[in-house]
C-alpha cells in the first residue's frame, strides 16, 4: 500500500492550481452576482485540457487516466474561485466527452470528441425529469422507432450547460419499464423538435447555466444511439461513477484552500487581544475541518484508483461522493463560523462557497441515494 502521489501527479495538481488561480479566480464574485458564464474562462479550461480530460489524444483530448484527472481537478478547485464554471467543465468532461469516449461509436467519437475537447462545443446531459429525479431510471421521455430513425418526446429538467449546449446526451425510454428499457442518444441542439427553456435561477453555482429541455417529435437517426439500444442504464451507471469522482475532486481542493484561510484567520483575528485560534472551540473546529477533508480525500483517491484499475467501483464511488459532498458543505459552514460576521459578508466570498457547496449533496445522486446504494449492496433498505 502506497499513500503517496507520484511526482508526475503532484506536478499535474500544482500546475492545475496555478492555472486556475490565473484564469478562473478573478471576477468570480461579479459573475456569481450576475449569473454569468464566462466563455473566456471556458476556452482557457479547454486549452488547458480540462474539457477532454478523459478523451484519448487521437480524438483531441488530453488522455488522462481517472486518478490523474482527479489530481488535476483537485488542483483546479484549489486555485479557482469560479466553482460554477469548474462544475460545468467537470460535468462535460465526465458525462459528455467521457461518456462518448467510453461508449460512443467511431462516428460519434469522430464528430463530437474533437469539438468537446477543444471547447468549441459545449455538452449537456439530460436524464432528470420533472417526475423522476432520484429515481432517474423511471424516466418517461420516450424514443419510438420509426423506420431508420428514433422520435423523442418528453421533457428534462435541471440540465447543466443546457442554455449554451451544442449537443445533448439524452436518456429516453425505448422499451419496457426499468433499467433495460432505457437508451442514451446523442442529439445536436439544432435538431428539429428540441427546445431549451429559460435558464433556471439557482442559489449557488450561478455561473453554471441550467435549463429545462423539451423534445417534441424530435427525430434522430439510428446512428444517434450511444452504446446500443437498451444499454442506457449501464451507460448511465458507469458514467455516474466517473462523474462523481470528477465533480467531487475540485471540492477537495476548495476544502484545502478554506482550511488554510481559516488557519490564517484564526492566527490573525484577535478578540480581547487573544487570537481566536487560541480558543479551543475555534482550534477544534479547524481540526475537524482537517479531519473531514483528509478522510474524504482518501476515499476519493481510493475510489478513483479502484475505478481506474478494476473498471468499476460502485461502492467506493458512492462512499466517496457521500463523504466528500457532506464534508464540503460542513467545511464551508465552519469557515463562515470561524470568520464570524465577516464570513457572512459577500466581500469575504465564504457565503458564496457555502451556496455553491450546498448543491453537492443533491446532484449526481443525493446523499440519501448514496446511502441507499451503499446499504443496498449489503442487502438492506
Ligand atoms: C446543481 C445541479 C445540477 C444538476 N445537473 C443536472 C444535469 O446536468 N442533468 C440532469 O439530468 N440532472 C441534473 N441535476 C438534477 C439532479 O440529478 C437531481 O436534482 C437529483 O437527482 C435529485 O432529484 P430531484 O431534484 O428530483 O429530487 P427528488 O428525487 O424529488 O428528492 C427529494 C428528496 O427526497 C429524497 N429521496 C428521494 N427518493 C428517495 C429514496 N428512494 N430514498 C431516500 N430518500 C429519497 C432525496 O434524497 C431528496 O432529499 C442537477 C441538480 C443540481 C442541484
Question: Any overview of this molecule?
Answer:
- The protein is 52% helix and 15% strand.
- The chain has eleven helices and ten strands.
- It has helices at residues 7-23, 28-34, 39-48, 66-79, 83-103, 106-118, 232-268, 280-310, 314-343, 350-357, 367-376; strands at 123-126, 142-146, 149-160, 167-173, 182-188, 194-199, 210-221, 225-226, 270-271, 274-275.
- The strands form three sheets. It has a four-stranded mixed β-sheet with strand order 1-4-5-8. Strands 2-3-7-6 form a four-stranded antiparallel β-sheet, with no helix packed on it. Strands 9-10 form a two-stranded antiparallel ribbon.
- α7 packs parallel to α9 (314-343).
- Flavin-adenine dinucleotide is lined by residues 91, 125-128, 133-134, 158-160, 205, 359, 362-363, 365-366, 368-369, 372.
Largest sheet: 4 strands, mixed
Q: Structural class per helix/strand content?
A: alpha+beta
Give the percentage of residues in beta strands. 15-25%
State the helix count: 11
Give the strand tally: 10
Proportion of helical residues: 40-55%
Ends: how far apart? 33 Å
Rg, nearest Å: 21 Å
Summarize the topology.
Elements: H1 7-23, H2 28-34, H3 39-48, H4 66-79, H5 83-103, H6 106-118, E1 123-126, E2 142-146, E3 149-160, E4 167-173, E5 182-188, E6 194-199, E7 210-221, E8 225-226, H7 232-268, E9 270-271, E10 274-275, H8 280-310, H9 314-343, H10 350-357, H11 367-376
Parallel strand pairs: 1-4
Antiparallel strand pairs: 2-3, 3-7, 4-5, 5-8, 6-7, 9-10
